Amino acid sequence: MPPLLRYNLAPTLNGLIASLPSHTTPWIIPDPTIDFAALYAQFDTFIMGRRTYETFLAMPPGENPLRGRARESVVVFTRDVDRRREEWGREVTVVGEGVVGVVRGLKESQRREGKDIWLMGGGELAGVLMRAGLVDVVEAAVMPVVVGRGVKMFGEGGGEGDRGEEGWRLVLEKAEALESGILMTRYRVVYD
């Protein structure tokens, strides 16, 4: 079975993945019942935007699931490629252009591997990949909070493959309410 590109995120109830202007997530509720080690073990490649990667860099080494992984297994997309390659190039793969082609290539190259690809964020990157028909699953741990301003789960839309008001249909595969108030969901994306 080909690997799935799974967009895993912890949005607010109103669909935001980071507060503005800080681009932080102070409203995320920790839940000790979530087995992150088991979750991380389902993936062999992690893709994300610059801000998401910087969030992981700020974590203590023992809590950062990206530490110690092979350079090619962590792909960070940024517009500031030269500076970021200089800064992070030994630890991760830094990519500036051709996002859709790179992700298509990752999905194709992992066809025999058996593990999925984790899309960690941000919203603009997720939107580009959704419009390209590459996001297979959206797994949202919906936080029981509403914030006023923030980064949308799929950016602002527009561009190639934009579905406008029609959007994309998602099929609910799983939903579980945790005692913390977090709603764990899994949706399969339906493309025409």
Task: Please give the share of residues in helix.
Answer: 10-25%
Distance between the first and last residues' Cα: 20 Å
- The Cα radius of gyration reads 16 Å
Count of the domains = 1
Strand composition percent: 25-35%
Side-by-side strand order of the widest sheet: 5-4-3-6-1-7-10-9
Tally the helices. 5
Q: Given the C-alpha coordinates, what overall shape results?
A: globular
Query: Which structural class do the helices and strands define?
Result: alpha/beta
Mean pLDDT, all residues: 88
Q: CATH superfamily, called what?
A: Dihydrofolate Reductase, subunit A
Order of helices and strands: EEHEHEHEHEHEEEE
Give the biggest beta sheet: 8 strands, mixed
CATH architecture, please?
3-Layer(aba) Sandwich
Weakly predicted, low-confidence segments: none
How many β-strand stretches?
Answer: 10
Enzyme class: oxidoreductase
Family: Belongs to the HTP reductase family.
Keywords: Riboflavin biosynthesis
Protein name: 2,5-diamino-6-ribosylamino-4(3H)-pyrimidinone 5'-phosphate reductase
Give a quick summary of the entry:
With 192 residues, this protein is α/β, with parallel strands linked by helices. The chain is built from five helices and ten strands. The protein has one domain (5-190): Dihydrofolate Reductase, subunit A.
